[in-house]
Amino acid sequence: MPADKIIVVRNDECDENIKKAGGKAYDGSALFDGNFDHIQDVLTTLNIPHTLIGKSELDKDTYSLDDKWILIFNSNFFFEHCCNPEHLKLAPNLISRVDVCPGPNNHQVHSTKLSDKAIKKIRHFVEEGGYLFTEHMNIQEIIERAFKKVIVHTRFLRGKLVKIQPASGQEQNPYLKYVFNTPYGWDLKSVPSVQWKIDDESPNIRIINKDKVTVLIVSPELAMSQRVKAQWQSPSAFRQHQFRKIRAVIPQLMWRKAGFFIS
Ligand SMILES: [Zn+2]
Ligand SMILES: [Zn+2]
């Protein structure tokens, strides 16, 4: 497969500032460059030829996807953050810089979000038959914007391990090759125990247009926990919960107050 047909896109928009900061935080740890994963390294390990580009290149009007076959995005951090090189050294993680930057002033706030033009380009690429592979953070940045009313995110999940299984009828789907089976065939005994790691703050996925989406993997365990949570968060349950919490807090306060008086 020619390398120029498979394109991997990484966040390159913090690179300059990270370079200016010397690449290291105050504690010597490497500065996070906004890429949660590095698909290019996986493809290299698998001996799959590919071309690595930055988001800034994809954003350019002159960059065309017309002659490409496959477009793969690293999961990357696209929210607004302060990218002042001096401040980067203070907090090694871009994520921690969304709300409060520890730098004193001169904050250089930017977002690495793809432009609407780039989103349009991606949509056109897929409509023409191109393959697009994205990761969880890209649901919000790319999927929801390029393919409206198909898949959306709801709340953000806490990190955890959940049991997964192939969606009904998808057991032999080639995309699931080696997820549940071994190179020698199905290992049925392992299916119920295969687990998926949900990273902290992953978007919960809601499928709006079921005709356009083929679900490959499901997690009844996660669905169940979400249902329980939704019930728990219904207004009356919430009020009861708050009430119980208040009742639990009051004795504690009284005890503290009593302790104070005694001393
Ligand atoms: Zn940045
Ligand atoms: Zn700052």
Furnish the topology, listing elements before pairings.
Layout: E1 6-10, H1 15-20, H2 39-45, E2 51-54, H3 55-59, E3 70-73, E4 81-82, H4 85-88, E5 109-110, H5 116-127, E6 131-133, H6 138-146, E7 151-157, E8 160-163, E9 165-166, E10 181-182, E11 185-186, E12 195-198, E13 202-207, E14 217-218, H7 220-232, H8 235-262
Bound molecules: zinc ion (2 copies).
Low-confidence stretches: 232-263
Q: Total number of helical segments? A: 8
The H-and-E topology, N to C, reads as EHHEHEEHEHEHEEEEEEEEHH
| Overall strand count | 14
The chain-level structural class is: alpha/beta
> What is the CA-based Rg, rounded?
23 Å
Shape estimate: globular
Strand order, biggest sheet? 2-1-3-6
State the helical fraction: 25-40%
Strand % is 15-25%
Biggest β-sheet: count, sense, barrel?
4 strands, parallel
- Please report the distance between the alpha carbons of the first and last residues: 78 Å
Hetero groups bound? Answer: zinc ion
What is the mean predicted local confidence, pLDDT? 82
Fold and architecture overview:
This protein has 263 residues and is α/β, with parallel strands linked by helices. The protein is globular, with a radius of gyration of 23 Å. The protein has 8 helices and 14 strands. 32% of the residues lie in helices and 19% in strands. It has a domain of 148 residues. The chain has a 4-stranded parallel beta sheet with strand order 2-1-3-6. A two-stranded antiparallel ribbon has the order 4-5. A two-stranded antiparallel ribbon has the order 7-13. Bound molecules: zinc ion (2 copies).
